[in-house]
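thoughts on my protein:
***
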Amino acid sequence: MSFPFPLLRLPRLVLCEVFKSLNIGEKIKLSICSKKVSTQINYCRLYSQKVHVHLDMYSNKIEVSENGEDKFKIFNWSVSVIKTNRQQYQIEGRTVSVISYNKGINAFWENDQKGFLSVLRYLSKIFQCKFLISDNYKYDSYEKTISELFDLQVEFKILTICLNGSKDENLLWNLISSNFGLVEDLRISSSFNSGFRPVFTSWPQKIYIMSSAWFTPKYLLTCTTCTTISLEGSLLENNDLDETLWKWQTGGFPNLEFMKILSHNITNNGTTILGMKLRELNRLVIQTNDGSKKATIKTGYGRIEMSVTPF
């Protein structure tokens, strides 16, 4: 005859090691079994920078993975969706109907969008995870979800923002722009139809902007903490790049590893860059004044790239 194992009677240190040995799915499933188990798992602080949470707001799906493997999917549905074999579990202090399967669960909420946010808050307590939002920025829940995550001070592996001048998007930008230090890779798609222009009060590690005509030379000279700068559809000119490269040589971009700028205003007939024409810069190796770093420049019509390596 078999008996239930008294898991919660184990010494706390032993219990923590048991929790840490579980895979992502096992940790999540066990944590929602009861409030006591959830409390113990939260106490053990199963933090890992390797845990990523990918959001799909179109289908209300959340995918949790570690090292890109061991993927566990959480689908959030309305209770009006007819399903059988539901069991009752605890998520964020709420009793939720859940269907469990091998690599995921289906959770049923009175309001599936609020349920989506509840699951995100819950995951942020269990893991010190990084969130990925690489698309789905056109859906109604986008602004509310992003704002909620920034309120929780979570970190973003990838954050995609679409800016077209709408009131909601402008408001969201003003709310989150001071917290871009929490973002590793910020990707911006923009097509402005109004007088709104973003103001950066902080910078991510990496920034990629499509249609970056609004990204001024002043912005470029200000984003000195970025490791990667990639601008498409820019209006920057030769003299802007000349000033930028001089600033890099004097140590003004200490973290920069790669920069790429595409602009029709980058020409071989305009102002020289570092005293040379555009074609003369191609394959040129330059270095900082203190000799600590070098960079290889590649050029073409309307394009300049710079790859930085330390000596």
Residues 112-126 form the longest helix (15 residues). The first strand starts at residue 51 and ends at 56. The chain has a mean pLDDT of 87.
